Structure formats: structure tokens, C-alpha cells
Amino acid sequence: xxxxxxxxxxxxxxxxxxxxxxxxxxxxxxxxxxxxxxxxxxxxxxxxxxxxxxxxxxxxxxxxxxxxxxxxxxxxxxxxxxxxxxxxxxxxxxxxxxxxxxxxxxxxxxxxxxxxxxxxxxxxxxxxxxxxx
Length: 133
What we know:
Elements: H1 24-36, H2 38-47, E1 52-53, H3 54-60, H4 66-78, E2 82-87, E3 93-98, H5 100-131
Antiparallel strand pairs: 1-3, 2-3
Helix pairs in contact: 2-5
């Protein structure tokens, strides 16, 4: 039971938002926050090439923790961008794939990644120039 003025207990793997935003601007920002975070972009790009197992995603994304990958996949699944399929084997096989809407986003994400690859040296040099005393 939650008393007035207190927040409900949220676990470290809970992906539900506290309260749905009602303004159009808040809803847009919420979607952009999800699809624009670095881990979601990388997961979407990998799944754009086809379904992957959890372990394949974890090995392909340098620096992502198991917890962060789990949270990212759950959030993308919650948003209807990724599907999770469990095959009852021993141990169970879990595959992740893009939904139809996820595939449309993957096209845009791939463009962003191409841009980043083409301009990473320029950005790096610009940062060095800016940071010079």
C-alpha cells in the first residue's frame, strides 16, 4: 500500500513509466528518449540485420552490462519495437527480432549510424580543438 505523498516501490528492472504524459510534447520527448538512447540505437541496428539471441547481442555491443541490455530489450519490447520469442529447449532459447514498426525505425537508425561513422573523426578533432586551453 502506498501512502499519500510517497512513491510506489520500483524495482531495478521495472520498465514501466510512473504516469503517462498527457501533453503531445511530453509524449514526443518520451518516444525520442527511448529510441535515441545509445543502447537502443545499437540494439536496433543489430536487429536490423535479423533476429539475434541475447548472448549474440551482448557480445556484439561493447561495454553494455547484462542488466542494461535486459532493460533496453524490455523497454523496446514494451514499446512494440522488438519481439521476444522463447523456444522451449533445455536451456530455453530466446530470440529477439524487430517488429514491423521496429523495422521502419531500424532504417532511420542505420542512417544515423552511417552518419556517425562518416563524421566521428571530425567530431573527435572538433572536441580536441574546443578543449584546448
